[in-house]
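Database export, one record per block. Field names are fixed; values are copied verbatim from the stored entry.
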Amino acid sequence: MEAYFHDDPRIEEWVDEITEKLFTVCLLTGADSEVEFQNGCQIVSKITNILQGISIFPSEYLEDGLKQLLEQQLPDSRVINNFPTFQETMKNMIREGMRLALDTQNQQNLSTMDISKKNTLVKTEIDAMNSSEECCADNIKPSVNDQNCEFIIPSTGTPLTFVDSTAVAPSLTKTYGILRKSQVPEIADRLKQVLTNFFPSVPICWNFKLKGEQFLAQVEDILIWIKNPEQPCPVDDLNKEGWKVYECSSTDLMFPRRLERGIRQIQRLGTKCRNV
């Protein structure tokens, strides 16, 4: 154990202090003795921390190693024999000091784990929010073969048209829109359940704006439109571009069975569907 003195000179200094505390504890009584005992335990915990940081020092021999360090610095055994409680006091001080060191280390590990868990939780929430915001944008992203794609810029509401310069002949292409809000509208709770049942792994876009018109929802090639007598839906134009339009009223949104029938019908007909 003497080799450790050379690795860290503080150990020899602390061993001398512990030896002094041991004799002081044996000489004093009551509260004064207890104070010196606790001071000695604190010094033992310092040595324990250093020995635990030495990779070649086996942790199972920690108590024996501490005892050996102290015994190497003790005076003649005849002096020790004059203090009947010395050996017991030394054993208790070593064990209490080790306990203090281990408790401190465990608290530090728990604090590190708590911080790590909090950071992981925050990162997970941020990733989930980003994923929720991007999922619909990914779903409506035009392919490289789309030639006339109109995008609505949310900040300005100004349409931008991108034309494929490599196109050699006009062709019908689907117009894409941009999601305005990711929150599910309050009136669409039942519709969300129905769409989730029909399309369990497909993202649903809410308040979907397309060609200047706002649809309640969009999933795959289906657009959900709330009927408005003053503003009819351009169904025919949308059908030509490959969209299927399901028109329903605010009342229909309260009845899941109606919504299910409407979704099935539009999937079967492949064009448009209106609830009567």
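Remark 1: The chain has nine helices and eight strands.
Remark 2: The chain has two domains: 3-114, 140-274.
End of record.
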